[in-house]
Design goal:
The protein is α/β, with parallel strands linked by helices. The protein has 24 helices and twelve strands. About 25% of the residues are buried.
Length: about 575
């Protein structure tokens, strides 16, 4: 019994008169022993008792049972003649608030659950912990939580986040010194940020991305603060510039990275193309017959014979598409030379703006090479499949079950198509075209190459580094652009000690239009970029808090109103 009494709230002036236990509940009768109380309106102390009344208050659970406090408290008469409240109830501020139905410590426990889980999930957990309450009560206590005390911020990180992606956005402010959320503001145009900075004049450093709205708001709201551009965004913008360079020089890149396969040559005395029934086809007979009657000298001069085989209907359709694409490409460039804008060209040709931009950036007509075989999840199991085919396996369903047992995650259709390609129409292992060599693998796209380039040199694989070396050797202009970009990446990573002003001069004088545009953008934000190359602050903690904000917002099932979301995000837990 003494241990049970220790779990009851310790409040001076309350006496335990009775304790009743049931299988699910513990009811404690507490009687007030105060001889006087202060009027809540005028503050006058009175000892004139008017009457008594009972209050039922919920408290923290006790040994797996719900604890209910039955409080016997008194009403007093106010002895101040000027006070408008003649009768008042005595207060117990150390135990509960006025008109409250739960103790302070139970309210604090509910608030912690609400901060962690929100309303619905928090209510389900509270029921399991013998602290039952409604989801609305949890959310109300979260919204009414007092702000946590904190010193004035000095180092602030700023970024935007999507309230509703593509429609509405907000701004999040992070205390970089303590890693906590300072506030969330509506909009990302910088107006709310400017007002907030004016209310906090002690800010010394502001880290941000390269958005012009935030740069202007920081300059006007906190002119004394140093702005620092985020290094990740600098590398991102650099990668995009390198990708544009590789897209413009796509023909050079493709030629440098292609393995280069020679055309199929048919010696007249050793090779023939078979038609149906194993006999030479009519096309080959028409091509070879003149050679059979030629003299040995003429055959020796001819060397090899190139046979023109008619295209299949699918190949003819692909060739027609390529011709139409080449005509569109030339027409777009002609209209551009005539001075038409991108939008005018897009409307005239019936193309998208992105397609027009790709045609103008590329030196040659892009060719997407439809029908090329792409990497699949089954490539890692190629040896296993070849062994299964060599043993006479032909049922793709059996192979699918065996591969699934070995941990392969490919679907049945992928396995069936892979086996069909390997067997061909003959039912034997081998490509469908007999002894024809498979097409060489396509070189990586400009986007993939740009991601390989932006990685650290020690993180690249040997084959990736070899591709970059081939690109540098393929074209002098491309070598200059890649060297300049690599130098700036080293500056951002603090591996190369080159002043920003010196690099900007070299980039603006280079022959690469994409890097000149990139350098022009850096010129507009030169002070913040220079600070990013020397300061240790970055927007990394801000990005982490944005991810946390998204998790909180999505876990509230659409009930994330601004007030509730702000309270939960600002809570340190």
């Amino acid at each position: 019994m003494s241990f049970l009494l220790d779990t009851l709230p310790q409040c001076p002036g309350l006496r335990l008169d009775d304790l009743v236990r049931t299988p699910t509940t513990v009811v404690a009768l507490l009687v007030s022993t105060f001889s006087s109380a202060a009027c809540p309106r005028c503050g006058t102390t009175s000892d004139r008792i008017h009457s008594h009344y009972r209050r039922l208050v919920a408290d923290l659970p006790c040994h797996g049972r719900i604890l209910v406090l039955r409080l016997l408290v008194r009403r007093f008469r106010c002895i101040n003649p000027a006070c408008t409240q003649h009768i008042f109830c005595e207060r117990l501020p150390q135990l509960l608030q006025a008109h409250a139905r739960s103790t302070l410590r139970l309210s604090d426990a509910h608030r912690v659950i609400g901060f962690a889980l929100g309303g619905e999930a928090g209510s389900r957990l509270a029921d399991q912990l013998d602290m039952p309450t409604s989801p609305d009560t949890l959310l109300r206590r979260v919204k009414n939580a007092p702000d946590e005390p904190a010193p004035p911020p000095r180092y602030v990180g700023v970024d935007d986040w999507a309230i509703r992606k593509g429609h509405r956005y907000g701004t999040i402010l992070i205390d970089l010194e303590r890693g906590s959320v300072l506030d969330i503001l509506p909009g990302r145009d910088g107006a709310a940020l400017k007002s907030w900075l004016k209310e906090h004049p002690g800010v010394e450093v502001i880290t941000r991305d390269r958005a012009a709205a935030y740069a202007q708001a920081a300059a006007e709201g906190a002119p004394q603060a140093k702005q620092v551009a985020d290094r990740w965004h600098l590398l991102k913008n650099l990668r995009e510039a390198v990708e544009l360079v590789l897209v413009r020089l796509s023909a050079t890149v493709r030629e440098a990275l292609s393995e280069g396969s020679a055309p199929v040559e048919i010696p007249p005395t050793t090779r023939a193309v078979e038609g149906s029934g194993g006999q030479p086809s009519a096309v080959l007979q028409a091509a070879v017959t003149p050679l059979m009657s030629a003299t040995p000298t003429a055959l020796e001069d001819a060397g090899t014979v190139t046979v023109s085989v008619p295209l299949s209907p699918r190949q003819q359709a692909q060739q027609t598409k390529r011709q139409l694409r080449a005509q569109r490409y030339e027409r777009v460039r002609q209209l551009r030379r005539e001075g038409q804008s991108l939008r005018q060209i897009a409307r005239t040709m019936g193309l998208s703006n992105g397609c027009v931009i790709r045609y103008l950036r590329a030196e040659h007509c892009p060719d997407w090479n439809p029908g090329q075989q792409r990497p699949t999840q089954l490539d890692d199991h190629a040896a296993r499949i070849e062994e299964w085919l060599a043993r006479g396996g032909r049922n793709a369903a059996d192979l699918y079950r065996d591969l699934r047992a070995e941990g392969c995650r490919a679907g049945y259709d992928s396995v069936r198509r892979y086996v069909s390609r390997r067997l061909g129409s003959s039912g034997r292992p081998g490509p469908r075209t007999g002894d024809c060599k498979p097409a060489p693998p396509e070189p990586p796209s400009a986007r993939k190459l740009s991601f390989v380039f932006i990685r650290r040199a020690e993180e690249r694989e040997t084959a990736e580094q070899a591709r970059l070396d081939k690109l540098r050797d393929a074209d002098a202009g491309l070598r200059e652009a890649l060297d300049l970009a690599a130098e700036f990446a080293g500056m951002v990573r603090k591996q190369v000690a080159v002043p920003l002003a010196e690099w900007l001069v070299k980039a603006e004088g280079s022959g690469c239009a994409e890097l000149r545009n990139f350098a022009g953008g850096l010129r507009l934000d030169e002070a913040a970029v220079a600070a990013a190359l020397t300061e240790s602050w970055s927007n990394g903690p801000v990005e982490g808090q944005v991810n946390r904000l998204k998790l909180i917002k999505r876990s509230m099932y659409g009930r994330a109103g601004w007030e509730l979301l702000r309270a939960r995000v600002r809570h340190a837990g």
